[in-house]
Amino acid sequence: MGKIKKLYFPFTRAGIQSALMYSVNMIFFSLSELLYCFVMFYVWKAVFAASGGEDFMGFDMQDMFLYLFMTNVTAYLTMSQADNAIAEEIKDGSISMRLLKPVNFNLSVLFKDIANPIILFVMVFVPMTVCIEIYRGVTAGMVMFQPLNCLFYLLSGAVAYLISFYMNMSFGFLAFYVTNLWGMGILKKILLKFLSGAVIPLAFMPTILKNILSFLPFASLSYTPVMIYMGKYSITEMLLNFGLQIFWLVMMFLLCKLIWKSAIKRLCVQGG
Amino acid sequence: MKKTLKIYRLLLVQNIKTLMEYRIDFLTGALSFIIDQAVGIGFIFIIFSQIPQLAGFTLEQIVFIYGFSLIPKGLDHMFTDNLWSVGYFIVQRGDFDKYLTRPIDPLFHIIAEKFQIDAAGELIMGIALVCLSAGAANVVFTPLSVLLFITAIIFASLIYTAIKIGTAALAFWIKVSGQITQVFYMTNEFAKYPTTIYSNFIRTVITYIVPFAFTGYYPCLYFLTGENPLFNIGGVVAVATVLFLIALFIWKRGLKAYESAGS
Amino acid sequence: MIHVENLRKEFKKTIKEPGLKGSVKGLFHPKSEMIAAVDDISFHVPKGEILGFIGPNGAGKSTVIKMLTGILTPTSGSCTINGKNPTADRKKYVKEIGVVFGQRTQLWWDLPLRETYGVLKEIYEVSDKDFKKKMAFLNEVLELDDFIGSPVRTLSLGQRMRADIAASLLHSPKVLFLDEPTIGLDVVVKNNIRNAIMEINRTEKTTVILTTHDISDIELLCSRIVMVDKGKKVYDGSLDALKSKYGIMRELDFVPEEGDGFSADEFCKGVSLKGEDFKLENQNGKYKVRFNSEKMAVKDMLTYMLSKTDAKDITIRDADIEEIIRRLYKEGVDDIG
Fold first, then answer.
1. For the whole model, what pTM was predicted?
2. Cα–Cα distance between C138 and C129 in angstroms, integer?
């Protein structure tokens, strides 16, 4: 542990430093993502007004509000930037420099990348959650915040981040094979948004689609932690979904290893 | 003017030639935008499976508004995509120098340099939705309304372009302004739905400050109901013109403040 | 042709404190100060001259070039080229100049070179006849034929630089600005480019302003140099004048016989020359003496040295231009222009 700290913390420190330089960008970026939540919030409000009922497929307006904003902030928080970082390094050849360092490749990227969720947690998650809970408290007339759910949420969110990290590392390694990852990156982002239930809650989807999507790793990224936060899961459901997350984490880890093995061979052959 | 058109045509032809080289990129790009909009439409259908109408509009009418809003967005995206690069890196890296050493207008030069075929995804989707929903939404196309439709689309596209020019120009002072453009640009999401669903504050903002309501809901309101053409269509023209002039003003001032990069 | 008067350019510079703490601090209280990148520079260039514009990194060379090419607006002072003010009549003005920045290309990344020239032809409104003639000439001196059909992104650095220079000459500019045109190139390409510059200067009387770190560029091309340091002009005159002033410096290299008890301190004590006139360096047992040959004759220095040690490997050299310039960068110069 002490060795890890000594070897890898400098990466995190450097990551935080460079992320701070872009902190203004980050705030603006979260702002623009937030706009989307507001649009959806009002659309849902109109939907509830039109349906005349309190309940829309098992969600009330309070739930909907929480779901929209929490999904967005969670997706943002657990999203790894590793694919961009790796693709960039592969493109400009600086990946060889990283390989020359006497550290584990994936771990050094992880410890640098982890700076993003750390900063986002402080600068986006905490203020956002406080605002959300205040709004919820005021509209409901009582404290709605569930500390225990929040704790489990953070645990599940941490696993979600790791899944996202290994998933994005695998994606980033594609830069070895594809010349321009930009278009595919957009496609990935858009598909992810849909598959993870960020646009349409999985609960609203046709049953078959819902069942498939809840099993796939994408639901583990934001849907599972948010459902935990909202207290939509019983203890058994929570454990089950948490187990599923761990399963996907292992799978993604192995996938990443596999791609890395074949990619490194290619790197040796091609040279840089 | 003739010279300008000739240069534009030359660059456009070259751009399209390069597209052939990057076929895969083009397909993934256009596909992403089609999927993105299809998901949005899927969402509308799911909602309407539970309710008969939203804010007084039927499914077809909402789809018409949604589809309409994609057309100016797609047009602007197709022809002026390079403006994003100004705010994200052209100014920061000092690459703007190049444009200043050429005897043509730098703004025109930057815009003419890139033709973004990805936008075909939005355009195709938008046109298809408008065509499919127009009948059921009781939109009647007469020569006059077609003319107004085209006018509204052109000036609505200009609103997008103006917002991108104005915010990209901020990079001349602060080096990187892409995120600011992003925030303003994302406001267009509000244009896809009737403004009546929003709070007064938001409605005021998207009507008068970041006037994206004129790129979707307002002009559509005229085509759907025939109401108030002066505000709904005239407003698009007026707002786009004013906004464009402001954007050009900011751009001109920015050029003077440009500091290049490095030593 | 070119008149630069009291040119000055200030930039606002943010000060970043080191470390994580500094980054956090900078986030809330960014500090900044005004820095004069170019401070009161004046010079004149007659038509047809090739002027070498030199100085260490960060001296303000590029900033001056950017003001002369209309990219930056001076904070104060003026530059007039061909009777035009670069920033005021920008569009008209840039038609009369050609600009090459060695560090980055001005060409379209994805376009084949031939198409690039086609577009530039329209932008600069070059007639078909002139264009044909010019392309033939450029082809000949810069040997573009091998790669004129390839997209710019596939060109090697040397090819790209030749392509860039050709692009800047298409419209027969009256003044050509070259910022580091030979940086990172091999000797063959360097020669190729130097020949092209000389050729265009000879046949069309094009005035050339050239910044470079390569001393051979200056020796081969420039009749005159302007040197800047820390934003100020420190030298303006011919290369020969610089050489004759500093050429009186000589360098004596030797290796003392092992075990004859040679002492550098003692050696220095025996010489009456002071300050800039005398310097002794030890490079792994090899000694370098730089001295003013007007104040102490080469013969005397040699005799003195031999009286101190039975040296081997003795060489005597003129201080070359590179040495002079390195010295100027380090020590500054009293104006001798």
1. 0.83
2. 14
DSSP-based three-state secondary structure for B180: helix
Distances (CA, A) of C45 to C21, C142, C209, C242, C325: 50, 26, 9, 18, 21
pLDDT digits (tens, 9 = 90+) for B4-36: 888 899 888 888 887 777 777 778 888 888 888
Chains that contact B by 3+ CB pairs under 8 Å? A, C
Whether C323 is in a domain gets the answer no
- Closest chain A residue to C20, measured at CA: A17
Nearest chain C residue (CA) to A23: C27
Q: What is the pLDDT of residues C29-66, one digit of tens each?
A: 777 788 888 999 999 999 999 999 988 777 888 899 99
Residues in chain B closer than 8 A to C59 (CB atoms): 263
Residues C144 and C267 reside in one and the same domain: no
With bands split at pLDDT 50, 70 and 90, how would you rate the model's confidence at B210?
A: very high
Measure A35 CA to nearest chain B CA, in Å.
7
- Taking the CA of residue C4 and the nearest CA in chain A, the distance in Å comes to 39
Q: Report the neighbours of A using a cutoff of 3 or more CB pairs below 8 angstroms.
A: B, C
Domain that holds residue C299: 248-318
Considering only CB atoms, B182 lies closest to which of A24, A29, A56, namely A29
Contacts of B118 in chain A (CB under 8 A): 183
Reported ipTM exceeds the 0.90 cut = no
Count Cβ atoms below 10 Å from residue B76 Cβ, excluding itself.
26
Is residue C283 included in any domain, yes or no?
yes
**Residue C328, in any domain of the structure:** no
Closest CA relative to residue B151, chosen from B229, B248, B60, B80: B229
Whether residues C229 and C262 share a domain: the answer is no
Place of tokens 């986006």: A124
**Vertex B65: Cα angle to B61 and B67 (nearest 5):** 110
For residue C101, the chain B residues in CB contact (below 8 A) are 97
The reply to whether C85 and C27 lie within a common domain is yes
Q: What per-residue string of b and e applies to A157-177 under the rule 16 or more CB within 10 Å gives b?
A: bebbbbbbbbbbbbbbbbbbe
Single-letter residue type at B34? I
